[in-house]
Amino acid sequence: MINIQKYSLRVIKENGGRYDLDRTIKSPRDAKNVFIEVLDLDKRAEEIFAIITLDIKNQITGVFEVSVGNLSSSLVTPREVFKRAILQNAAAIILAHNHPSLIPDPSTDDIKITKKLMQCGDVLGIQVLDHVVVGSKHDYVSLKEEGLV
User: Fold this and answer.
1) Helix 108-124 and helix 78-87, axial crossing angle in degrees, nearest 10
2) Is the pLDDT at 113 greater than 80, yes or no?
């Protein structure tokens, strides 16, 4: 006779709130607004890497803080990003991180990790729609709009 553990996976909602935002993401500006309103990415003193999970109609199903870094970097791995997306049964995700310097110019590393995550998303069937770099409330860069990915 052997002992076998049985497990289940669940997403636990930590907290929520009501926001004056559209539920459907139609543009990088919409995504930037969600990251700022929900996670305060424009006010954080350290780099935060985050994602929005979306259904097949680009409606928000969740917002996740994936990692907290330091003043100039944060550790990002496909495993940590897509773990959240898979648990949310996401059809697509939008990536974001902030630059505490308030200058949202994407670095070479930002572009490299975005391309890597897009490749991983293709394998998993979860589309990576964009990566938004947040500087201040009004200053951000969409890697997709800039043609960097």
Assistant:
1) 40
2) yes
pLDDT tens-digit readout, 12-21: 777 777 888 8
Q: Alpha-carbon distance 32 to 51, whole Å?
A: 11
d(CA 42, CA 137): 6
Euclidean distance between CA atoms 133 and 72, whole angstroms: 13
Taking the CB of residue 143, how many other CB atoms lie within 10 A of it? 21
pLDDT higher than threshold 90 for residue 27: yes
Closest-CA residue to 148 (of 136, 134, 130): 130
Task: Identify the pLDDT of residue 18.
Answer: 81
CA–CA gap between residue 41 and residue 77 (Å, rounded): 19
Q: Name the β-bridge partners of 95.
A: 51, 131
What residue ranges do the domains of the chain occupy? 31-142
In SS3 terms, 30-82 reads as: HHHHHHHHHHCCCCCCCCEEEEEEECCCCEEEEEEEEEECCCCCCCCCHHHHH
Please identify, in words, the CATH class of the domain defined by 31-142: alpha beta
Tokens 């110019």 found at: 105
